[in-house]
């Protein structure tokens, strides 16, 4: 009997490819990888279907014509969520409408949609970078947060407290967005009111329109700007059961507003005295290597849950087996990475499960808001979330990131 087949659509740089392939092997599934990785050193990309992801219509036509027809479609990252939705719709497989995928990726359209459907979002407006450069001031009062229309991992997200800071942020965003293939996303940004408060992240899976919460993470580091680099995630959340239930209802309302019907969701929420505010609800799993945190906390692989759901199998109810947390190792300064000292000491901290460095010697380090990657990840488990957070902070204190200046060679 043939094994069920999954179509995994991914950009070549995705962190998530290996985890999905390993999970599929454990579930006895065949995977066809579709990507822009024709010349990749990763065999699954090199041997898979090669697409031009800048031409989604042509890519969709290629994928729906492939044989054998898959039984499920998964997108690893924001950039391919809409394409996966189109393919699933054409093949009549479980998935989301393409419009829902676009709401989940485009922050400006998401904000407008949520406001239309009565879900709380901060005051916001879209501004052209040319307007900001010319000195235009938004109608929303400072402090503000300026962010790209479609980027993840806090890249390009900047708090500004006055008009001068807004113009400076506009200059930086102009450079950051210069390589975007989308003219609209290259020329405009979202400007919204800064919300004080604490943040949580909710990981869930939507099955036939119903949200199943997999885990909720606290972010113990204050995220007040001027940049919003995430570092610590810890579960279980210290928030009250009543507030967590309200957070789940808020994410369900967001999914309903977008039209998300089937697949993973990763939601970022800010909590203050005025209520629960949706910062983002993406139609994908948590970023980087952080999906491992779900397995450490619940004993279940997040990728396995997503694969089963893609085959229309309802996700099981998850419960915490351990307190768990992750440190996304921040990049402290720009430069060329020489070495990371103290790794063995960090690994010996009680509670630390694993430490992975993803950037190697000689790599150029670029911090936020321009940067788009972390140095690596530290995972820890324990009896309580407080113990886990303490272990991560002790491990972080062991690390010394040694850099050298980057010298650009300019022709005379």
What does this structure look like?
The protein is an alpha+beta fold and 412 residues long. It has 4 domains: 89 residues, Rossmann fold, CATH 3.40.50; 71 residues, ATP-grasp fold, A domain (Dna Ligase, domain 1); 124 residues, D-amino Acid Aminotransferase, Chain A, domain 1 (2-Layer Sandwich); 68 residues, no CATH class. 32% of the residues lie in helices and 27% in strands. The chain has a 4-stranded parallel sheet, with helices on both faces. A 4-stranded antiparallel sheet has the order 5-8-6-7, sandwiched between helices. The chain has a 4-stranded antiparallel sheet with strand order 10-9-12-13, with helices on both faces. Helix 1 links the parallel strand 1 and strand 2. Helix 3 runs parallel beside helix 4 and helix 5 crosses helix 6. The protein is globular, with a radius of gyration of 21 Å. The protein starts with a strand and ends in an 8-residue tail after the last strand.
Secondary structure topology:
Elements: E1 5-9, H1 17-26, E2 30-35, H2 43-46, E3 49-50, H3 56-64, E4 72-75, H4 81-91, H5 98-105, H6 107-116, E5 124-128, H7 129-133, E6 144-148, E7 158-160, H8 163-176, H9 183-187, E8 188-193, E9 198-207, E10 210-218, E11 232-235, H10 241-258, E12 263-272, E13 275-282, H11 291-298, H12 302-310, E14 323-329, E15 335-341, H13 343-347, E16 352-357, E17 364-365, E18 376-382, H14 385-398, E19 400-404
Parallel strand pairs: 1-2, 1-4, 2-3
Antiparallel strand pairs: 5-8, 6-7, 6-8, 9-10, 9-12, 11-14, 12-13, 14-18, 15-17, 15-19, 16-18
């Amino acid at each position: 009997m043939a094994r069920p087949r999954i179509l995994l659509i991914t950009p070549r740089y995705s962190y998530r490819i290996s985890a999905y392939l390993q999970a599929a092997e454990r579930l006895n599934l065949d995977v066809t990888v579709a990507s822009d990785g024709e010349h990749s050193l990763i065999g699954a990309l090199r041997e898979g279907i090669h697409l031009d992801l800048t031409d989604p219509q042509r890519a969709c036509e290629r994928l729906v014509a492939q044989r054998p027809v898959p039984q499920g479609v998964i997108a690893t990252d924001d950039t391919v969520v809409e394409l996966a939705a189109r393919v699933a719709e054409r093949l009549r497989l479980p998935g989301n409408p393409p419009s829902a995928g676009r709401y989940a990726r485009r922050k400006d359209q998401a904000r407008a949609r949520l406001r239309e459907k009565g879900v709380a979002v901060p005051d916001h407006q879209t501004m052209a970078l040319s307007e900001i450069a010319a000195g235009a001031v938004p109608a929303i009062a400072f402090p503000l947060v300026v962010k790209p229309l479609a980027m993840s991992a806090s890249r390009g997200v900047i708090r500004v407290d006055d008009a001068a800071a807004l113009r400076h942020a506009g200059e930086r965003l102009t450079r950051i967005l210069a390589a975007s293939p989308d003219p609209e996303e290259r020329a405009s940004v979202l400007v919204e009111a800064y919300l004080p408060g604490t943040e949580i992240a909710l990981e869930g899976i939507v099955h036939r329109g119903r949200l199943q919460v997999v885990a909720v993470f606290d972010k113990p580091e204050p995220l007040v700007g001027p940049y919003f680099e995430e570092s610590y995630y810890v579960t279980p959340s210290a928030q009250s059961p009543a507030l967590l239930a309200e957070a789940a209802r808020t994410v369900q309302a967001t999914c309903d507003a977008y039209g998300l019907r089937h697949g993973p969701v990763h939601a970022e929420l800010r909590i203050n005295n005025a209520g629960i505010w949706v910062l983002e609800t993406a139609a994908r799993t948590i970023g980087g290597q952080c999906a491992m945190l779900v397995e450490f906390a619940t004993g279940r692989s997040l990728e396995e849950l997503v694969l089963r759901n893609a085959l229309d199998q309802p996700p099981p109810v998850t419960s915490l087996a351990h307190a768990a947390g992750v440190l996304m190792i921040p990049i402290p300064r720009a430069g060329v990475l020489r070495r990371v000292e103290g790794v063995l000491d960090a690994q010996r901290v009680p509670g630390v499960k694993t430490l992975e460095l993803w950037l190697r010697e000689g790599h150029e380090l670029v911090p936020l808001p321009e940067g788009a990657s972390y140095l690596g990840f530290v995972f820890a488990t324990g009896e309580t979330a407080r113990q886990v957070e303490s272990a991560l902070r002790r491990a972080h204190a062991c690390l010394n990131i040694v850099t050298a200046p980057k010298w650009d060679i300019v022709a005379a």
